Amino acid sequence: MSFTLFADARLALARDSLAGLSTGDALGARYFAPGARPEDLAAGVLPPAPWEWTDDTEMACSVLAGLAESGDVDRDRLALAFAERCDPRRGYGAGAMLILRLIRTGTPWPVAAASAFDGQGSCGNGAAMRVGPLGAYFADSTVRAAAQARASAEVTHAHPEGIAGAVAVAVAAALAARARLDGHRPAPERLLAGIAGAVDPGTEVHRSVHRAAGLLGRPLSRVVAALGNGSRVTAQDTVGFTLWVAATHLDDYPAAIRVCVQAGGDVDTTAAIAGAVVAAYTGVGTPGGVPEPWLAAREPLPTWAP
Ligand SMILES: [Mg+2]
């Protein structure tokens, strides 16, 4: 099926994905607080509101704001937006803080991004955590979603794994949003194969997405042992796992988030990534979608968010 996706429709899909991202981020972050127990969420008990979102949401809002304005990623403007809006209280990693400080004080983003981690560039999961709504925005073209994801990643993540992580997540969200428009849920193995096909085959992220397909239906502990749960905060130990979650629970947002919380690790980011992909398929307030009460418990998005 081919179709034309108008600007308003793109933005609506991306906003749903952003709702899923920000709610997953904010709820996931609650489980770093003392006394918060994943078992409670599994039993249906939600933490007290408001749930404050973190860097994942702040950066995702900047990505989507740029798209809403011009329809394309403008790397120079995105780098400045990331740097100027960076609120240090939102849980940014030390590497991200350093890159954004360099950009804010006048270092060109290619230099700042390349300087990270002794000149290797960042392979952190930060480019993947913010990119789901971009993928939903380009639901009509996985090629475009992948290219735009790469552009959005490059301003902070120069390492091939960091970029591959963003491409994988954006293509996942594009395929999920496309499936929503088609009215047909893709089989998990098919979805993962479609994602893997768009990712640089020389990367560990690609191998991880490929391995995720072989782990469908397996117990969570085994999946985490094989793919990670983001505890190393790299794209390699985050993206395969989150896409396993999204493919498994594509029609059930609460289930996807519960699994991320149960898995532990970098929970705000794993729930943000899986949540963004799943919500691109389910939407908000629909059966299996982002529950309205969860969205109401999430701190409001920044006033400048699209
Ligand atoms: Mg975070």
Automatic annotation (TrEMBL):
What keyword terms does UniProt attach to this protein?
A: Hydrolase, Magnesium, Metal-binding
Cofactor(s) needed, names only, are: Mg(2+)
GO molecular function terms attached to this record = hydrolase activity; metal ion binding
Tagged with keyword ATP-binding? no
Cofactor info, note text: Binds 2 magnesium ions per subunit.
Q: Which InterPro entries match?
A: ADP-ribosylglycohydrolase (IPR050792), Ribosyl_crysJ1 (IPR005502), Ribosyl_crysJ1_sf (IPR036705)
UniProt-annotated binding residues for Mg(2+): 54-56, 266, 268-269
Highest rank taxon of the organism = Bacteria
Question: Would you tell me the protein name for this molecule?
Answer: ADP-ribosylglycohydrolase
